[in-house]
Amino acid sequence: MDVIDRKILHELQANAKISMKELAQKVYLSSPSTIERVRRLEENGIIKGYKTIVDAEKLNRNITAFVLFETTKCKDHAAFCSVHPDVMECYRVAGKISYIAKICTESVHTLEEFIHKAMEFDTPSTNIVLSSHTNMELKLSQDTSSG
Fold first, then answer.
1. The pTM is what?
2. 106 part of a folded domain
3. How many domains does the chain have?
4. Quick check: 39 and 31 in contact, CB under 8 A?
5. Which keywords does UniProt give here (predicted)?
6. 54's torsion region: left (phi>0), alpha (psi -120 to 50) or beta?
7. 8 A C-beta contact, residue 31 and residue 20
8. Are 67 and 39 contained in the same domain?
9. For the domain that residue 124 is a member of, what is the CATH number?
10. Which of 9, 25, 28, 83 has the smallest C-beta neighbourhood within 10 Å, fewest atoms?
11. Is 38 domain-assigned?
């Protein structure tokens, strides 16, 4: 992987829907060369796929929480999280805590229901997200440009 491949990856991470023509212009290559490099990055498993980033609030999932789980029933926990629709991400971690799950749900009530179900085999601790670093950066950028 060279500098151009890294530039291609950077551009695709910023906008996976970019046209190959536009991508080629940004990395100063011909379209066929760019297409070949992207194909090679995909075939080599460097690019695993392309994601859609969903706005959870527009799906009426206004509550985001990180739930920390202390458990000895790791297989049961992993199975539970893999099928629960409110679990967006789940990480196995080392230390006193066994898992950290990112939950996006409709209300505090549905979050409580999730926690109640999880307590069947886990000891959860919940942290509700008030804002994200990205949102704060955006707000700061908007505030500084208006004055």
1. 0.65
2. yes
3. 2
4. no
5. DNA-binding, Transcription, Transcription regulation
6. beta
7. yes
8. no
9. 3.30.70.920
10. 83
11. yes
Chain centroid to CA 42: 20
**Residue 98 belongs to what domain range?**
56-130
What is the full per-residue pLDDT of the chain (147 aa) written as tens digits? 899 999 999 999 989 999 999 999 999 999 999 999 999 999 999 999 988 878 888 888 989 999 999 988 888 989 999 999 999 999 999 988 999 999 999 999 999 999 999 988 778 888 888 877 665 554 554 544 444
Those residues whose C-beta lies under 8 Å from the C-beta of residue 7, and which sit 6 or more positions away, are 26, 27
Domain CATH number, residue 38: 1.10.10.10
73, 115: one domain: yes
- Give the amino acid at 1: M
d(Cα 27, Cα 3) in Å, to the nearest integer?
Answer: 10
Sequence-separated (6 or more) residues with CB below 8 Å from residue 128: 63, 64, 65, 111
- The distance between the two most distant Cα atoms of the chain, rounded to a whole number of Å, is 57
Rounded Cα distance, 115 and 27, in Å = 47
